[in-house]
Amino acid sequence: MKETQETVDFGVSTTQTGWNKHDTHWLLSLFGTAVGAGILFLPINIGLGGFWPLVLMALLAFPMTYLAHRGLARFVLSSKRSDADFTDVVEEHFGTRGGRLISLLYFLSIFPILLIYGVGITNTVDSFLVNQAQMVSPPRTLLSGVLVFSLIAIMLGGEKIMLRAFAVMVYPLAAILAALSLYLIPYWSMPSLAIPAAADFLQTVWLAVPVVVFSFSHAAAISSFANIQRRHYRKQAVVKSEQILKRTSVMLIAFVLMFVFSCILALSPQQLLEAKAQNVSVLSYLANATNNPFIATLGPLVAFVAITSSFLGHFLGARESLNGLLTKYTKLPLAVADKLGIALMFIAIWFAAVMNPSILGMMEALSGPVIAMILFIMPMLAVFKVDALRNYRKHLGTYFVLLVGMLAVSALLFSLLG
């Protein structure tokens, strides 16, 4: 069949059946959003549960990741308005009160992660300058201000600059993850293949669900992503969004799970416990345990690139949701709300980076249940409420995502209250 393509102003494609540069850029952007600094702790967090729960979670990782993000994208694209963002869609489907509450929770689920990344990138660069570059530690206020401003400046440069920045960062990030995974092969040892008791196995898998969910989450960028695909592809937006999301999920699962399995096979259960007790990333522990300068050098680079790429994706979601809240609550014009929102977020992230608080892990844990509800539960409930989504009511994937969402929320609440 001959490939068709229509164009509108500026040569933007609205109907295109083949894969193109635009799709590749968004694949890289979503990949970069998902692969944050948390990947460096993922082998420790998931490896402690044993080999067989790890195998099961690896098998479930793709459907959990792809189906959930596909559902959220479908939800955003279900609006009758062609320019609707996440805040508009939830208000349209759940009413003014419910919509604004969900929008506020959505923003509050993303924003603490930006604070964490502001602290993380400052600490990573400061550590690199002192330990690797043998420099004197610069004033924290100046260093954090320059770093946070630089990251936000990339976002203010527009969609093209943002996508190019992702392309520059994600290719080396994927290459380094693959290189490290292969480099660790000589350190591999046979894991324990003992089958755990059924109760222990099920509890381990249950508590591992949120770990896997958030390690692969790129929910913060989905609303902007879906909107841009609607503007770019119009009637084909749903099909093209799902195509890009599917390839993103495959790339995520391939590179991240290869890294996770390689790290876990290179460390004993006792070493994983020791790494968890020390509260260091798996690369930092491996560098210390093996006294390996190659790993010690790559560790800060991976952390810097991962934090930077994930920061950009999460800032995209926070900016959009805050703009929606400000324009609806204060009636400010969008241009004014955007500038005010960016200024407020810059000050807050900079302040957190300067103060370097130790409570950010708890903030991330508290935002976790909200992300699970926004990504897994809310879009699936909308399937039974919104006429535009009624075709998905009998799909098995709808019930699978809803179940995973309930497991993730209950496991997170159990961990917080336990």
Automatic annotation (TrEMBL):
One example of a Gene Ontology biological process annotation: amino acid transmembrane transport
The keyword Nuclease is assigned to this record: no
Keywords: Cell inner membrane, Cell membrane, Membrane, Transmembrane, Transmembrane helix, Transport
CC annotations in GO: plasma membrane
Transmembrane region(s): 26-44, 50-68, 101-121, 141-158, 165-185, 205-228, 249-273, 293-312, 332-353, 365-384, 396-417
Main subcellular location of this protein, as a coarse class: membrane
Record membrane topology: Multi-pass membrane protein
Subcellular location: Cell inner membrane
PANTHER family in the record: SERINE TRANSPORTER, SERINE TRANSPORTER SDAC
Protein name per the record: HAAAP family serine/threonine permease
Taxonomic lineage from the root: Bacteria, Pseudomonadati, Pseudomonadota, Gammaproteobacteria, Vibrionales
